[in-house]
């Protein structure tokens, strides 16, 4: 399908905007997929805070170049770009699972922080726990020393209170002769 020069400029501007707003981008090659299959994939990606769009390769290459993101060779085949706006590992996991199950989808490569990611790196990224779990683990690690410090500081006063209580109970107890 031929696009006018103005339409291509608009598409390029949109690609650049998505690249600027996303934390990571993953390129997937697809073939023989119905529109329903593509929409199902888009729905899964939206669930993890991302977007998926069919992109024109030459315009995507130009957008990557304008964003100063280095990539190898040229982008070939029919491409679908997944833009991770929130949770990068969750997006990588969705794409990894979908491409493993389908013979019509394959991961090309991705970009994170302006660096090229190989398919193996994307698969490894997909094995990380979701962002909320990672945050909870980090918070638990940070808070553990603080709670231990509070217990350590409070321990001497607790011991003194226990000794005083023991003496008061000893004084109050009737003596047997």
CATH uppermost class of the largest domain:
Alpha Beta
Q: What fold name goes in the CATH topology slot of the largest domain?
A: Alpha-Beta Plaits
Named CATH architecture of the largest domain: 2-Layer Sandwich
What kind of sheet is the major sheet? 5 strands, antiparallel
Provide the number of structural domains: 2
Q: What oligomerization state is this entry in?
A: single chain
Please describe what this structure looks like.
Helix content is about 60%, strand content about 15%. The chain is of the alpha+beta class and about 180 residues long. It folds into two domains: about 5-130, Ribosomal protein L10, N-terminal RNA-binding domain (Alpha-Beta Plaits, 2-Layer Sandwich), CATH 3.30.70.1730; about 130-175, no CATH class. It has a five-stranded antiparallel sheet, sandwiched between helices. Strand 4 (about 105-110) and strand 5 form a beta hairpin. Helix 1 (about 5-20) crosses helix 3 (about 55-65) and helix 4 (about 90-100) crosses helix 5 (about 120-125). The relative contact order is 0.14.
Task: Give the topology.
Elements: H1 5-21, E1 24-30, H2 35-47, E2 50-55, H3 57-66, E3 79-84, H4 88-101, E4 105-112, E5 115-117, H5 119-126, H6 131-172
Antiparallel strand pairs: 1-3, 1-4, 2-3, 4-5
Helix pairs in contact: 1-3, 4-5
Describe, in short, the structure shown.
With 177 residues, the chain is of the alpha+beta class. The protein has helices at residues 5-21, 35-47, 57-66, 88-101, 119-126, 131-172, and strands at residues 24-30, 50-55, 79-84, 105-112, 115-117.
